[in-house]
Specification:
The complex is a heterodimer of chains A (373) and B (729). With 373 residues, chain A is an alpha/beta fold. Chain A is built from nine helices and 21 strands. In chain A, strands 8-9-11-12-13-14-15-16 form an eight-stranded mixed beta sheet. A three-stranded antiparallel beta sheet of chain A has the order 1-6-5, with no helix packed on it. In chain B, helix 1 packs antiparallel against helix 5 and helix 7 packs antiparallel against helix 8. The two termini of chain B are 34 Å apart. Classes of the chains: A alpha/beta (373), B alpha/beta (729).
């Protein structure tokens, strides 16, 4: 054997391995057994020629050929028909305090049956639930939980509400919508915890069947959304406006991430916008960031930053501004904007006292907006 | 090609040998500093280490396969340019690493996967190791094609680098300052040894850049970490410590991993209270890690306790004291607290104390070094040092709202290992930090019980508190986690020092964060049947050797086969012995470089002996190859630590000696027919690349070290058979 033939042989072997390795790995790495997925026709899409479709659920407007999957990873074009792969298929189901969502002006002290499927239409680098959001449907173990079963489960667990949360409920819209209908029939409220990347039409339809929406406003610049969320700010702001104008209750969470979205001027702008566009009564939560996912090595938010943000927002006229993820902080409690008394005293997820009478401050009678019963 | 002979009036013997010695010195020291900086930038686990080292070996091997241009008369100018260029590229490589995150357009604190790390490793290897590999060939020409002499000198240089860098430079100065001294020194010595006429500009540039490194370390660090405010940094023997300040929040990073962030009591409370609340009479507590994280303050909230804190790197506490307000660390000066700066496992094994609680505040088992704290051997040691009813506690990073199959298997591997030592089922507390508790006594996760105790003791806590416990310990969450553990534990793999299964599962979790190929590769690797990875390749190699034995029966190229086998064996044995040594005797800075020095010393001795043989030792090869087989058998026996600390040193010296002798002997035989001085060296390095990548990425995580050594022995038996068959012709 001479050097040339050796090199030829080695190169050939290398190419063969290189060509075959990804396919072999994908095959070996694929879940053993058939994944538990659904095949229910999706809503909010249009059919195009050549078996293409365009999804109209979220601002991504995915245009997909046959067998292609939407950006969210849980919706697929099969022969020109668009299907949701996670209808009736939950991967996470827990009974959580409603304050954990957080909803501070909705049924305080109660529990919410919290459910999710896989998938998400953005890619936050600090996602708390990346194991189910940043994956495709088949990469997660789902179990069957049809809408009527989910609603029944909420009743049997003593939960007056169901929260569609953890991942991004927009991507399991049909499942969420039908579950909300079932829940309403049983007197169970529906709460949506969303990043707000949803188009106006499905959002309007959704607001007719749910009771409260909490929007995660992740930053207040397009640059932040592009760099750290792979999304856009504008549609989120539109969604907030839409919810604020509807009958559904709105709360907003702003996760304060050190050096990324904590500039005082951005927070001031954001608070001003919320006050002008959504209303001064919309609760705004400044949540403390803890290292997570790809940002595991970014420091937690200093408490002083959160307190300054709260002061800024109160200074912009917002009446209910909270600090989250800091158990025991006084800014977890709800204060009457009239007399300043604590109408709901919270420590962590626990309610220590409620001084409301029919939705009004027990001391001075000022109406405290929210869903109290 | 100009031939330098001893006694040539134009060159002193020493300066003629210096370039080859310098080559080894540069290659080894560059590798050390690049690896240290690499670990800090890419949060090294053994996968990344293996690929970095592998990339270095691969490019070095390819470089040595490049033949010098025909007709080139004087190698000195090329060597001088090459060495100067290597120093320049080394400085550039360090800067490239420092700003790697910025180059990728991501935050300094953002996690990166295997693919970017591999990309940087390949680029650095190409620009640094490739030319240095080629320098081996040029040095051979410089020394009259005496490859054996070059090998000896290069190995001696590498050994010297190991000792000087690890014992003189690293303990005393930052990586960049040490690198500057090495680079500048190499440039000066090149000038002295080669006296180039035309390459002075390159060497001057190398000197300047080295000086620039020396003075710009802190500035570059601050720039690289923007927008975070870096206020302090220290390169210790154990890693790179960085302190970031944001308002009142102070965070310490160790090789890119956050050690603590204060004030933030969540992690400290998790590490302490779930364990301490289990018993009423906790008096003696051992805290491993977390000395500066606030854990001590939490422990001291309990009346009557005394705490022994063990922290591997004393610089962690020193930097914490420097950057935090005095009140934050006042607890460390409490007379009830004793702080020990040593390896936590070694401390536990040597102490005569017994404890009511052993609290681990350590990272997840992302390296075999940290994996030692989650193995059966360690848990057994903990059990010996716990009083009856004593509690062991540690925290693992986990998902809060969904227990994936990958996490289940990871957690189950650790819980299953615990079960082997602590028979009652360990309990696990769900949460973003999954708290694992083990004891031979009862354990409770009743939130009312724990809350009542908190109230009775008057403990002021924030996260492990009556307000938060009911949600944290929701029965549904606890039961679901326990159920998934029970199902996953049916796979029943026990995590051991030498079979680090939890490290493999943790690697899967780590890789799953990135949307690249790394997770699929690792999962795929775990599903390949054992025989395919361990035994089928050996069968293929046997077949290939049989074919080669027929086709190369008269060719001197057949002597490259034992060189390749030696290349794989030597690097893999080094890695295996390092891991086993740390598992058996603790992680002590300085011992690993000494082990390496033992190997290199053996290498030099073996090569010298081989070179002294007047005639190429074809007949010696079977004996040397057989020696490898015997040493591997001895290594297998010594892996659990039999014979004490000296044994690994003796073994590695023996492997080094055999490797050196074999290389020189086989290479001489090859050179009889193929006058390419770099061929044998190239084959050695490329084989080492294959060995280190397969061993560190596949075999060690999946099957452990004993299985690896056994297969190495079989490989060497195949090599022995090949040598015997072909030598008889």
């Amino acid at each position: 054997m001479n050097r040339r033939s050796f090199l030829r042989g080695a190169a050939g072997a290398g190419l063969a391995v290189g060509a075959g390795l990804p396919a072999l790995c994908a095959r070996l790495a694929a879940q053993t057994g058939r994944p538990n997925l659904s095949r229910v026709e999706a809503r909010y899409y249009v059919k195009l020629p050549d078996r293409e479709i365009e999804c109209r659920l979220c601002p991504r407007l995915c245009r997909l050929g046959d067998k292609e999957r939407g950006y969210c990873g849980v919706r697929e074009n099969q022969g020109g028909v668009y299907y949701t792969l996670v209808y009736g298929k939950a991967c996470s189901l827990n009974v959580d305090p409603i304050e954990k969502k957080p909803f501070f002006h909705v049924l305080p002290g109660t529990t919410a049956l919290s459910m999710a499927t896989a998938g998400c239409n953005v890619n936050c680098k600090f996602c708390q639930n990346w194991e189910i959001s940043q994956v495709r449907a088949e990469q997660v173990e789902h179990f069957d939980l049809p809408p009527e079963a989910a609603a029944a489960k909420a009743v049997s667990a003593g939960c007056p509400s169901i929260a569609y949360t953890y991942s991004e409920p927009t991507v399991f819209f049909e499942y969420m919508y039908d579950t909300a209908l079932q829940a309403r029939r049983r007197g169970v409220r529906s709460l949506v915890v969303t990043g707000g990347h949803i188009n106006p039409e499905p959002l309007a339809d959704l607001l007719a069947v749910v009771d409260a929406v909490k929007v995660d406003l992740k930053g207040f610049t397009e640059g932040f959304y592009k760099a750290y969320v792979r999304g856009a700010l504008k549609p989120v702001l539109e969604a907030i406006r839409t919810v604020a104008k509807s009958e559904a209750w709105l709360e907003i969470v702003y996760l304060v991430i050190p050096t990324l979205n904590d500039r005082p001027e951005d927070i001031r702008e954001m608070a001003r916008w919320v006050g002008n566009e959504a209303g001064a009564d919309v609760p705004l939560h400044f949540s403390r960031f803890h290292p997570m996912y790809l940002m595991k090595n970014l420091p937690p938010t200093p408490l002083s930053t959160l307190e300054a943000a709260r002061e800024t927002a109160l200074g912009q006229g917002l009446r209910f501004v909270y600090i989250g993820n800091v158990p025991g902080h006084e800014a977890e409690s709800t204060y009457c904007p009239g007399c300043g008394q604590a109408v709901i005293k919270r420590v962590g997820y626990s309610i220590e006292a409620v001084r409301l009478k029919k939705g009004k401050c027990a001391s001075c009678g000022t109406a405290i907006p929210g869903i109290w019963a | 090609m100009r031939i330098v002979r001893d006694g040539d009036p134009r060159h002193l013997g020493l300066s003629a040998r210096l370039p080859a010695f310098l080559l080894g010195f540069m290659a080894a020291s560059f590798q050390v500093y690049l690896l240290r900086e690499f670990s800090a930038e890419f949060t090294g686990n053994e996968l990344t280490f293996g690929f970095v080292l592998g990339a270095w070996l691969l490019w070095g091997g390819l470089g040595s396969l490049v033949r010098p241009r025909r007709g080139a008369v004087r190698p000195e100018p090329r060597l001088a340019r090459l060495y100067g260029g290597a120093v320049i590229l080394f400085c550039g490589g360090l800067v490239l690493l420092r700003f790697s995150h910025k180059l990728m357009g991501i935050l300094p604190a953002e996690a990166t996967g295997l693919v970017p790390a591999l990309g940087f490793a390949l680029v650095l290897g190409l620009f640094l190791s490739f030319p240095l590999g080629h320098a081996f060939v040029l040095n051979a020409g410089f020394l009259g094609d005496d490859v054996g002499l070059v090998y000896i000198l290069e190995s001696a240089g590498a050994a010297a680098a190991g000792l000087i860098v690890h014992f003189l430079l690293i303990p005393r100065m930052s990586n960049w300052l040490g690198a500057a001294i090495v680079g500048g020194g190499a440039a000066i010595l090149t000038l002295v040894a080669l006296r180039p006429r035309r390459s002075k500009a390159i060497l001057a540039a190398a000197l300047l850049l080295s000086a620039g490194l020396a003075i710009s370390d802190r500035t570059a660090l601050k720039a690289a970490w923007k927008p975070l405010d870096l206020v302090d940094a220290e390169d210790t023997p154990y890693g790179k410590l960085l302190v970031i300040r944001n308002a009142e929040q102070v965070t310490l990073f160790d090789n890119g991993l956050a050690v603590f962030s204060r004030p933030d009591v969540g992690a400290a409370e998790d590490a302490v209270h779930f364990a301490m609340l289990q018993r009423d009479d906790v008096e003696r507590v051992l805290l491993v890690g977390g000395t500066a994280s606030g854990c001590v303050e939490e422990v001291l909230k309990y009346p009557g306790v005394r705490v022994d804190c063990v922290e591997l790197d004393p610089a962690v506490v020193r930097l914490a004291r420097k950057q935090l307000p005095p009140a934050a660390l006042a607890a460390l000066d409490d007379p009830r607290v004793h702080v020990f700066a040593q390896d936590g496992r070694a401390f536990l094994e040597r102490t005569a104390e017994r404890y009511n609680a052993v609290l681990l505040n350590l990272p997840d088992p992302s390296t075999t070094q940290i994996n030692r704290y989650y193995t059966r051997e360690f848990f057994a040691e903990v059990r010996k040092k716990l009083e009856p009813g004593g509690v062991l506690s540690f925290v693992l990073t986990g998902p809060e709202n969904y227990v994936s199959g990958a996490f289940s298997r990871y957690l189950a591997s650790i819980v299953w290992t615990l079960l082997d030592v602590f028979p009652p089922q360990p309990v696990v507390v769900p949460g973003p930090g999954v708290v694992v508790l083990a004891s031979d006594g009862p354990l409770s996760l009743d939130p009312e019980l724990l809350s009542a105790k908190i109230a009775r003791l008057g403990l002021e806590t924030t996260y492990v508190s009556p307000a938060m416990l009911p949600a944290r310990l929701d029965p549904g969450r606890v039961d679901r986690l326990t159920l998934t553990l029970t199902v996953a534990a049916a796979e029943g793999r026990i995590n051991r020092d030498l079979v680090p299964v939890s490290y493999y599962f943790q690697s899967l979790l780590w890789a799953g964060q990135f949307r690249g190929i790394e997770a699929r590769l690792l999962v795929a690797a775990g599903r390949i049947p054992r025989a395919w990875i361990l035994d089928a390749p050996l069968a293929l190699i046997a077949l290939a050797l049989a074919v080669l034995a027929c086709r190369l029966r008269r060719s001197a190229a057949r002597f490259l086969v034992p060189v390749a086998v030696m290349g794989i064996t030597s690097i893999v044995v080094e890695v295996a012995v390092f891991i086993a040594f740390q598992a058996n005797f603790g992680y002590v800075y300085g011992k690993i470089p000494l082990l390496l020095a033992a190997f290199m010393a053996g290498l030099v001795i073996g090569a010298v002996l081989g070179r002294r043989r007047k005639r190429p030792g074809q007949a010696d090869l079977p004996f040397v190859q057989g020696g490898f087989v015997l040493l591997l058998a001895a290594t297998l026996g010594a892996l659990p630590g039999r014979g004490g600390e000296p044994v690994p040193f003796v073994l590695l010296a023996g492997f080094g000696a055999l490797s050196g002798y074999l290389f020189v002997a086989a290479n001489r035989l090859v050179l009889r027919e193929t006058p390419h001085p770099g061929l044998g060296y190239g084959v050695d390095l490329i084989a080492s690349f294959a060995g280190v990548v397969v061993a560190s990425a596949l075999i060690i995580p999946l099957f452990g070290i004993p299985a690896l050594i056994l297969r190495l022995a079989v490989l060497n038996i195949l090599g022995l058979a090949f040598v015997m068959v072909t030598s008889s012709r």
